[in-house]
Amino acid sequence: MWSSVSAQNGQAGQTGAPSYSYPPPAYTPVQVRQNFAAAYPPPPPPPSYPVHVAYGQPQASLPPQATYPPAQVSPTPAQEQPKKKIEWPESVRRYVQRSFLPENLDPSVTRQEMELKLKETISQANDQGLMYQINWDAMGLPQQMIVAERKRAMNMAAQAASTDTNRDDSLATAATGMKLSKKRKSGDFASAESAPWRTSVDSGPSLEDRITNPSPEKRQATEEATAKNTNNFQKQLEKRQKRFDGGYRSTYRSPSPPPNNGLVVGTCQTLEKRYLRLTSAPNPALVRPEPVLKQTLELLKRKWRTEGNYSYICDQFKSLRQDLTVQRIKNDFTVSVYEIHARIALEKGDLGEYNQCQTQLKSLYQLGLGGHPLEFKAYRILYCIHTMNPGATNDILTDLTPAEKKDPAIKHALDVRSAVALGNYHRLFQLYHDTPNMGAYLMDMFVTRERLLAMCKICRAYKQDVKLRLITEELGFESDGQAAEFIIEHVGPQQVEEFLQTRGDDIHFLTAKASTARCFEGPAQLASKKVDIKGQI
Amino acid sequence: MDTIFNEFGVAMTRRNGYELAQTLNPELSDDMLRLVYKTANHASIKDLLKRHIRANTQHLPHVDLDEIQMWVDVFHCYWKTCGELLAIQDRSPKASWVKVYEAWKELFSALHRGYMSPKVELPAWTIPCLYIVGKYLRVFAMNADEERSNNPNQETTETNFQDDLDMEADKFVWLRDCGVQLNRMFTLCLNDRANLMESRKWGIYNVANLLFKTYFKVKSPDLCKNVLRAIIAGRGDMPPFEAIPKSQRVIFKYYQGVLEFLDENYPQAEEHLTEAWNLCHKDALRNKELILTYLIPCHLVTTAKLPSAKLLEPYPRLQQLFLPLCGAIKKGELHAFDLALQEGEDEFVKRRIYLTLERGRDIALRNLCRRVFLAGGFEPPKEENAQPLRRTRVPLDEFVAAIRLGSQEKLDSDEVECLLANQIYKGFMKGYISRPHNMVVLSKSGAFPPTGV
């Protein structure tokens, strides 16, 4: 029986020093105490903190006793434990001193009670790491807390008396506790412990934080333990309790939050945030909720138009995407974020980033969240042409529906693919000049390669020479000058004379010579090597 | 139950791995399944198994207590699997392929321990047990996935710290897991350092084949490359490939060929596929059909050869797939080719041969050009009795007209030139284009090197 009680105390994280100091048999009417504890639910520790360990040695976290001279606490076993060396902040020392100032002393509160209260308050703050956050100077004094608690206990009793017909019993039990000084202390204790969070007037954040629930298993364990120990008397008490508490459940705090499944709802209100790869669970305080993210997107769009600083924009978009991910936001807004980032990345030729967006968009589109799936499917085809990935190309072809194949952008991309596959440079460059949306940025990635391959063919097929005009037109150059530049770039400036000759009004490109010299074979081969881009699907 | 353990005892005595594996076959008739499962309950099964196994291995001195315990574990899992299978058969509400899969996976783990534990060290002749475990692991995983796709509302919430969402509604959760398990099995076989004759390395090809099948199914054929790499790296101390059972070699070569095919390494692909073709049992039509599905397009690209009608005769599906294309290529009918390709697109794409077959258009074009050349007839003889010479200077317009007609598309002469340039570059046609004269000048000897079409 006792063991269950102490377990309860331990779990609940109460400063159970007195209860530890007496051997179990000293407590005969344990039920009473237990019921007090139950009636004023013990403030359970926040589950994530290692409370048990910390509370196991409550003395350790007490400020040095020497700071207030008349410290004649009867030594408890816990006190004899080796003290942890802790640097107490000046503010805490001041708080302790203030508590023991003669003008602040309350005659109704014994020194022991005060010490225990202090111990509890401070060690709690220490355990929660709030030692430096709490404004100790504004903190309520322990004696005030105790008085407040007593008052509340009285109110409760009064309430109980007014509603409960069996009040004699309850008072009697309470009285048994009160009469014996030792018992009384423990009784006081139960109420004292519950006080801070009940009032939460003068307790500050540290006490606020305590109001968390024990994990469901623990609670169940406690319930079971209680049930086992229950005798009739206790049942009666419980019933009573139930009546003025409004049910068994209410003896505990509101149901604990559902177990964290990684879902975060952000609270951050700043629009801009640097991207940082997450290595642990996200901190809600640093995550922006959707409305804020929407503003962020507008801001970024504006900034991209006015400033055009890609590295900044990319970084911001990545953090934006991260915030969406950790909050599992999947909707049309998500789609538009990825689409815009993909377009910007395309414009800047950042294929790695583009491809990440593309991958995400692919699955987002599968969820039917709107956006521009056709436009991006067309990009994906062009992208595959660039990366020369037959497997992925085949996958895309599998995915396309007949209706999609009729879409102008997709049809264009498919035509490009077929032209590239068959080496039809004529058609390829016609298509190049007529690319819908932003596909031209992607095509730019592989036109040089295709031009080189086409040059190989032209050199081989035409004798003796062709007008430069043909190359300009067939390979989609904007002017003869550009075509000439392209040739010079690949045959080398020294040999230009050999391959380009002016006759009359025209410049002629000596294809036969270039063919025997195999000018374009090497570069073409080099350009056709596998393209490897990070983040590829 | 008795029969199972009698067989078990016999197999252990004879050291026959395949017989032993049969005792673990979960594909039993309904009645057998019930019989096996109902012989015991959860409390009694272990003792029962122990009794049976001990009784049937008494005469084998090398089977010690540890090994018996291991077999008890294995058969305990087997019994549990039977129970889950029975639940499915009985349409019990709690029945689930996932449970079957999990129970079977446990069986694999028990067996794995048997091989790895220094106390038991299961001899290598027992590896057929691994084969059967791997085989059904895959079957059960596929069933579990199917079951999952039928009840899609089991959303799993996992915490991930990835930057982006990975929402790919995964159709192959269990099969992927199966891939992991099979990979364990593969390493188990690969890393056996025992003397070759007693090595589990004999099992790698079979397990590799299971892995290939799994990886292809989950649409990540790239993962197969790791397996291939491991096998090639350890080739020095592997059992000779010729010594592996033919059935395993065929599958292995087939996948090796298909993998090369998907990477567009057609010559290597052809080599492997041909090997598979030659090894394949003559009556294994289905397998031969699969091999041909890739070998034919492969051959088309490497040698520009088409399958004969006789070859395709036993395979109506292949005929349907390839004959329209072949006819169009042969006659140089571009339009018919385009139509046939379009017609079969879905099927071709599914089999991943579309991109390869597309290249057949070049050959069709070549045949068309050749017709233009032949239609040009002969040069007027310069001398009496001279060998008649074909006209080798063909006006470009003739090609333009022919290709326009053939493809039923409106092409300008520049595009036709481009197509011809491709033909010349790819070696289908010998000659050159002369722009000033608007002529195509073809080689006097062998303007169209034979392609065999």
UniProtKB/TrEMBL annotation, chain A:
Compositionally biased spans, kind Polar residues: 1-16
Signal sequence interval, chain numbering: none
Protein name in the entry: SAC3/GANP/THP3 conserved domain-containing protein
UniProt biased composition (Pro residues): 40-49
Natural source organism: Coniochaeta pulveracea
Positions of the SAC3/GANP/THP3 conserved domain: 278-490
Highest classification ranks of the organism: Eukaryota, Fungi, Dikarya, Ascomycota, Pezizomycotina
GO cellular-component term (any): nucleus
A Pfam family matched in the record: SAC3_GANP
Region (Disordered): 1-85, 176-235
Record's compositionally biased regions (Basic and acidic residues): 207-226
InterPro entries: SAC3/GANP/THP3 (IPR045107), SAC3/GANP/THP3_conserved (IPR005062)
TrEMBL record, chain B:
The organism's place on the tree of life at top rank: Eukaryota
InterPro entries linked: Csn12-like, PCI_dom, WH-like_DNA-bd_sf
Start and end residues of each PCI domain: 250-447
GO molecular function, one term: double-stranded DNA binding
SMART domains in the record: PAM (SM00753)
Family: Belongs to the CSN12 family.
PANTHER family: PCI DOMAIN-CONTAINING PROTEIN 2, UNCHARACTERIZED PROTEASOME COMPONENT REGION PCI-CONTAINING
Protein name stated in the entry: Protein CSN12 homolog
The species this protein was found in: Coniochaeta pulveracea
Gene that specifies this protein: CSN12
